[in-house]
Design brief:
The protein is mainly alpha-helical. It has helices at 8-27, 35-66, 69-93, 99-127, 130-143. It has one domain. Helix 1 (8-27) runs antiparallel to helix 4 (99-127), helix 2 runs antiparallel to helix 3 (69-93) and helix 2 packs antiparallel against helix 5 (130-143). The protein is elongated and about 50 Å long.
Amino acid sequence: MLRDKSLIPLSRQHQHALALCVRIDRASPIPEADLRRWHEEIAQQFEQEIKFHFAAEERVLFPVARAFKELTALVDELQAEHMVLRQSFSEAEAREMTAWGLSAFAERLSAHIRKEERRLFQRLQELVNPQELAALGVELEDALKDAAQACNLPNEATKLKAKK
């Protein structure tokens, strides 16, 4: 099923975060010398986009989803994952994430995004009527207005390298 236009801003941000996860996965194992640059990029992505994304989901999207009993447990799970992911972003900002931790973070973030896209967004599109989805889209747009509108460019240490 195609993504409803009201949820596209969140899906676009998901794509940005998934691109980061793919680059971490392909660069693994991350050399110790490159960890600082990865930490910087992760912290920047959180500050420019993900903190707004989490807030929009928690303030706008999750309350709508909680109105449906079948989605309550999923929303609780996603909310708990936000807390764990915020801790990971804090570790990156404090330059405390190890190379192994970086890989585990990318796996957690990727799994979280896929759960939101495949289960929450999909089900909301089926349960919420088009007018309510449109209103939700307006609220989400407002909640995301301070987020960066473009994907961050990787730095020299974090960009994908050509395979030799």
